[in-house]
TrEMBL record, chain A:
PANTHER family hit by this protein: 2-OXOGLUTARATE OXIDOREDUCTASE SUBUNIT KORB (PTHR48084:SF4), 2-OXOGLUTARATE OXIDOREDUCTASE SUBUNIT KORB-RELATED (PTHR48084)
Organism in which the protein naturally occurs: Haloarcula mannanilytica
Protein name according to UniProt: 2-ketoglutarate ferredoxin oxidoreductase subunit beta
Organism taxonomic ancestry: Archaea, Methanobacteriati, Methanobacteriota, Stenosarchaea group, Halobacteria
Domain of life: Archaea
Domain Thiamine pyrophosphate enzyme TPP-binding: 61-208
Keywords carried by this UniProt record: Oxidoreductase
Segments for region (Disordered): 140-166
A GO biological-process term: cellular respiration
Entries under Gene3D superfamilies matching the protein: 3.40.50.970
Pfam families in alphabetical order: TPP_enzyme_C
UniProtKB/TrEMBL annotation, chain B:
Enzyme class: oxidoreductase
Protein name: 2-oxoglutarate synthase subunit KorA
Lineage of producing organism: Archaea, Methanobacteriati, Methanobacteriota, Stenosarchaea group, Halobacteria
Limits of the Pyruvate:ferredoxin oxidoreductase core domain: 510-584
Membrane-spanning segments: none
Catalytic activity: 2 oxidized [2Fe-2S]-[ferredoxin] + 2-oxoglutarate + CoA = succinyl-CoA + 2 reduced [2Fe-2S]-[ferredoxin] + CO2 + H(+)
Organism expressing this protein natively: Haloarcula mannanilytica
Length: 312, 632
């Protein structure tokens, strides 16, 4: 019997279950795109059939990090840029958990960029949502890794001399097996993409455009948006790496020309997740490791019987 | 210096098999009934460079490296890049022969491979004069020739063992047994032939020396292993099944051992992108209910600072290993030092709440790693095991029964699902994971684990209220800070009652004291024995609990002596500083003997240092520093 009865508890899920019984007043500004992520995430949960006690949400630091204050699940608000390494170990420790990580563009593409690359490379079975508002919001409006070239801010008074990072292309190269862009202004698509990402067996990366009306852009800057799957202009095979690369390049460039392209950018279903790879080479137990600590009948071998012979 | 002991040094280049040969030599001597202790010295490179290992053997227990050595097997560095010309770092090929041959004791034997080392070159380094002056027995032998006759050049280390056995008049039985155990087929046969040939060739030389290898026997079955083995085995026996790391010398040792064995025990090892990730992964695994560890050496541990603080703030149990090497910065990567104490105690922002144990030897590495896990998981606090390259690289025999202990996989203060149903919940629906006043009256508020029904809470690096939500309310702040910090008092009381980590040596009523921490303990204890034999009145205290500091125990001991010398391998007397800070006095009672040249103390150096300190004389040796007590 599992020590974690919330896991795979087969019942109807209401989206309200993910709203805390007493909701703390949100620290987000009116009109903030972060509300859109929260809403889409809550709406996706009944679709994927997950209940609050089997979901573990790991966040970084920034306005996005407040997500799990308003989302009623197990939560771990970690440190700046480090949500992914904490999250992926929880998945290894208990693969039955539904693991979601979230953070801002500074968190995932700046300070935590190394973890973003390596977590994608390893293809952990989890979902990563990057709140991309093209700015540092909580620290009051500095230029971020996704701010456009020439972006002026208090820390870049002469305008940024750097080209922005290409988050989608970077994730494709790194090894993510589900890559999409959505926007807070497009809640229906956002919900669908989050649900797909959660159900995807591998590392799913969502670059989520979240307007920052206080420091950067308000919602109208992300409208109109184009869903590339529904547009005749973009006829590409989402499972073809080369075509996906081309699509991503366009998506990244056009954003800075004022055209918002969203949708699924790359989906690869064949590649095994990291957990599967590790089990295959005998480096990970078949049963979730976390269960053993709660199993009174579990046998714990000791080094005296197994390793000491070599030293005699 | 004991009269009846062997200190055999094998020296060559990295890649010449120095390490494995010394391990075999030590194991064979252990089988023969002796007690052994190895001291390892190597450069930070893959091939070449002077590497040596000393094997000290005695019928009495050995707990330290000795003073110098009395037998040198110099194989020469077969990987020297610039063997013929004068190189930047000196004559590389010859270094294993002449570098610190001053430490070869009078009357010692110096056996070198003339198959590799050119006789003319050897002449140039002044060996002949030195040998005459010190009454050394110089034995050139063509070990390479013997090796190549039966097999490959690398087997010259086996030839060296055979020749050593003949010169010291010890049986080759145990060496043969080892070769048969470790090798098979042609390799085994070739090595056996090399061993035999070299033995016979050396026997014919009839070297007349005074070294007597003692004879001994063991009352019970012995094992020989390193501090890194003991730390790893302690972790596994305490239920650790998850490790994450990034390679860095000397931490790599524990990481390698764990990675090799954890899968056999049903566990998981992760080599990750950097040390920030390494510590963060261990936190994530622990948060999800698994007993987890990580670790690094100085520079890598610096990267773990922020996750370490997160563990303190979220009260997530975690065990970290810090394997010290000489700093600052990259320092001397393969050389031991004890200069990361303050780093480990204070790194990360805010007031620190952590446990730090510094085991002094292999035995303590096992027991204190187990303590670290027990305390970490029971009290939901990070526990750090700090040791150094010296213990990492030393092998020592001890009774196998030391490890005959029951495993303990208890995840500590974690609730079961049934218990969670009855536990306090906030009206938001969240489980109250961080109660100001836990129900059992302790300072530990039990946790739940993701996946448990109705156990959801928020863990956050922000200050938080009982259900984990971010809070900057002053009263809540004080309550949470006090509870987290008060756990340290509880841990101190627990350790005092259940697990003593401090070790004493010498007569209780002695006038003088030597205070020591970590890896130098064995050497200090040997020095204390000698000092008492020399008529001094000295005792020693070895401290392992760096945090929470054993204030009462150390105070009582310091009160009982007139003066105390604090011995440590760093330049700024960090442990003495810690002791003064924790006890708030004794600055006028404690002086320091420091060494930071990359080599651990020898017992005779501590004897000299102590004697000059009480006589008020200048230190004779330039490789140490004496810092007098305040007011002196």
């Amino acid at each position: 019997m599992s020590a974690f009865s919330a896991i795979n508890d087969d019942r109807e899920i209401e989206r309200d279950e993910f709203t805390p019984g007493i909701e703390p007043q949100a620290t987000w500004c009116p009109g903030c795109g972060d509300f859109g992520v929260l809403k889409a995430l809550k709406q996706a949960m009944p679709e994927v059939g997950k209940n609050p006690d089997e979901v573990a949400l790991f966040t970084g630091i920034g306005c996005s990090g407040k997500l799990n204050s308003y989302f009623n699940s197990y939560g771990f608000h970690t440190i700046h840029g480090r949500s992914l390494p904490v999250a992926r170990a929880a998945k290894l420790a208990n693969p039955n958990l539904e693991v979601i990580a979230a953070g801002g563009d500074g968190d995932g593409y700046g300070i935590g960029g190394n973890h973003t690359i390596h977590t994608a490379r390893e293809n952990h079975d989890m979902t990563y949502i990057v709140f991309n508002n093209e700015i540092f919001g909580l620290t009051k409006g500095q230029t971020s890794p996704t701010s456009p070239k020439g972006h002026k801010s208090k820390t870049q008074p002469h305008g940024s001399a750097k080209s922005p990072i290409r988050p989608l292309s970077q994730q494709l190269n790194a090894g993510a097996t589900y890559i999409a862009r959505t926007a807070a202004v497009n809640p229906n698509q956002a919900k669908e993409i989050i649900a797909e990402a959660i159900e995807h067996d591998g590392f799913a990366h969502i670059d989520f455009l979240t307007q920052c009306p206080t420091w950067n852009k308000d919602a109208k800057h992300y409208v109109p948006y184009t869903d590339v799957q529904q547009s005749d202009e973009f006829d590409f095979d989402v499972s073809d790496r080369a075509e996906a690369a081309e699509m991503m390049r366009k998506t990244e460039e056009r954003l800075y020309e004022g055209e918002v392209l969203t949708g699924r950018m790359y989906i690869e279903d064949e590649r095994p997740s990291y957990g599967e790879e590790k089990r295959q080479i005998g480096e990970m137990p078949e049963e979730p490791l976390a269960e053993r600590y709660f199993d009174e009948d579990a046998e714990w071998e000791r080094t005296y019987d197994n390793l000491l012979e070599h030293h005699k | 210096m004991t009269d009846n002991e062997l200190i055999w040094r094998i020296a060559g280049g990295s890649g010449d098999g120095i390490d494995s040969t010394s391990q075999n030599f030590a194991k064979a001597l252990m089988w023969s009934g002796l007690n052994v202790f190895t001291h390892r010295h190597y450069p930070s490179r893959i091939r070449g460079g002077h590497t040596y290992v000393e094997v000290r053997a005695d019928d009495e227990p050995v707990k330290s490296r000795g003073d110098g050595y009395n037998f040198l097997l110099a194989l020469g560095d077969s990987f020297a890049r610039n063997p013929q010309e004068e190189a930047y770092y000196g004559k590389e090929e010859l270094k294993p022969l002449y570098e610190n041959f001053d430490d070869l004791r009078e009357g010692g034997v110096l056996l070198y491979d003339e198959g590799l080392l050119d006789d003319e070159d050897v002449e140039e380094i002044g060996l002949e004069e030195a040998a005459e002056e010190n009454n050394w027995h110089v034995v050139p032998m063509d070990l390479r020739g013997i090796a190549k006759e039966h097999g490959r050049e690398i087997m010259r280390n086996t030839a060296g063992i055979g020749a050593t056995a003949a010169i010291l008049d010890i049986s080759t039985d145990e060496f043969e047994k080892l070769i048969k155990q470790n090798m098979s087929g042609d390799m085994q046969e070739a090595n056996l032939n090399v061993l035999e040939d070299a033995y016979e060739a050396a026997s014919e030389l009839d070297i007349d020396h005074d070294i007597e290898v003692p004879e001994g026997s063991h009352d019970e079955e012995q094992v020989i292993l390193s501090g890194s083995n003991a730390i790893s085995y302690g972790a596994i026996d305490e239920g650790c099944r998850f490790i994450s790391g990034y390679p860095m010398t000397p931490w790599t040792d524990v990481f390698t051992i764990m990675s090799q064995h954890l899968p056999e025990f049903g566990g998981i090892s992760e080599q990750v992108e950097d040390e920030i990730a390494a510590a963060a992964l261990a936190l994530g695994a622990s948060h999800a209910g698994v007993k987890a560890m990580s670790g690094s050496s100085g520079g890598g541990f610096a990267l773990m600072s922020e996750p370490l603080g997160l563990a303190e703030m979220t009260e997530t149990p975690i065990v970290l290993v810090e394997a010290m090497r000489a700093g600052p910065s990259t320092g001397m990567p393969t050389k031991p030092e004890q200069a990361d104490l303050e780093h480990v105690l204070y790194t990360s922002q805010g007031d620190s709440a952590r446990v730090v144990f510094a085991p002094a030897n292999i035995r303590e590495c096992y027991t204190q790693t187990r303590s670290a896990f027990r305390i970490a998981y029971e009290y939901q606090i990070p526990a750090i095991v700090i040791y150094d390259q010296k213990i990492q690289g030393e092998l020592r025999n001890l009774p196998a029964s030391h490890f005959d202990e029951e495993p303990n996989a208890d995840p500590g203060s974690v609730l079961t699902e049934e218990e969670i149903q009855d536990a306090a919940h906030h009206s938001s629906g969240k489980f109250q994971r961080f109660l100001h006043e836990p129900e059992d009256g302790s300072n530990v508020s039990p946790r739940s684990v993701p996946g448990q029904k109705d156990g959801r809470f928020l863990a956050t690096g922000n200050e938080h209220n009982p259900s984990g939500h971010i809070s900057e309310d002053p009263e809540n702040r004080i309550a949470q800070m006090n509870r987290r910090l008060n756990k340290l008092d509880d841990i101190r009381a627990d350790l005092d009652e259940n697990t003593s980590h401090q070790t004493y040596r010498g007569p209780e009523d002695a006038d003088y004291g030597i205070l020591v921490w970590g890896s130098q303990q064995g050497t200090v204890f040997e020095a204390v024995d000698r000092l008492n034999e020399n008529g001094h009145s000295v005792k020693a205290l070895g401290v392992s609990d760096m945090a929470p500091y054993p204030k009462e125990e150390v105070s009582e001991w310091l009160e009982s002596v007139d003066e105390a010398l604090v011995v440590e391998m760093n330049a700024t007397a960090q442990f003495r500083g810690l002791t003064q800070k924790e006890l708030g006095k004794y600055g006028d009672k404690m002086s320091s003997l420091l060494k930071y040249n990359g080599n651990p103390f020898e017992p005779a150096e501590i004897v000299d240092g102590f004697e000059s300190s009480i006589d008020g004389e200048e230190l004779a040796a330039s490789n140490m520093k004496y810092v007098p007590a305040a007011g002196d």
